[in-house]
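The following block was generated as part of the benchmark described in Methods. Ligand: 2-azanyl-3-nitro-phenol.
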Amino acid sequence: MRLDVFSIFPEYLAALDVSLVGKAAKSGLLDVRVHDLRDWTHDRHRTVDDTPYGGGAGMVMKPEPWGEAFDSVMPGDGPSQPRLIVPTPAGRPFSQDLAYELAAEPWLAFACGRYEGIDGRVAAHAAERMQVTEVSIGDYVLNGGEVAVLVMVEAIARLLPGVIGNPESLAEESHSGHGLLEYPVYTKPPAWRGHEVPEVLLSGNHKLIAEWRHEESVRRTAERRPDLLAAWGSSLAAEDDAAS
Ligand SMILES: Nc1c(O)cccc1[N+](=O)[O-]
């Protein structure tokens, strides 16, 4: 998978050089290219923003640098086009399902907005030749899209074949598809500062351990995410109906 990221703070994306994503890039599983949007400005101040039409506070990112950057890095007459992801609070909620969907793409491009956002014509013009998806990582206010890109790239990259050592671990994680939050985990020592590891986990009885883990997943989901529990219950009912 090729990933292109456009930002006025390319150093913010340095985190993509470390850990899981960095290893994937070094092993050739990922081709990560970070671009400084200001490289496509032509004035001495390397201007990327201007006042909003219609008034209002803040500044809007000018369309020209984006258009020139996209033309340069992913030309319209090229053999293929990426899927463009624009992090924005007004976007489609990012989820594990969307991470799987994006992990199936051969080429992703991310446009990191700043200020009050990117001129709306940038996405509209890009959509003339590539799929554009505006995505939100959550209902809170950030100063730009860079941190959202770091979140999405990590969630996507770990789904690519060969990136994580034990693919089986993907199956038991929260939001991994069974619909429940994952159970609590423990390791040595068996007792620590007056806290004991649940005895069942020391029993060696794999059936009891599996039952305890499921019960813990259901309990945690009921406490913290009743919305997920309801959806999980509905999916079980649907499976039962399909089987009967
Ligand atoms: N929430 C937010 C933002 O405030 C600015 C850029 C991107 C996002 N987001 O992806 O959720």
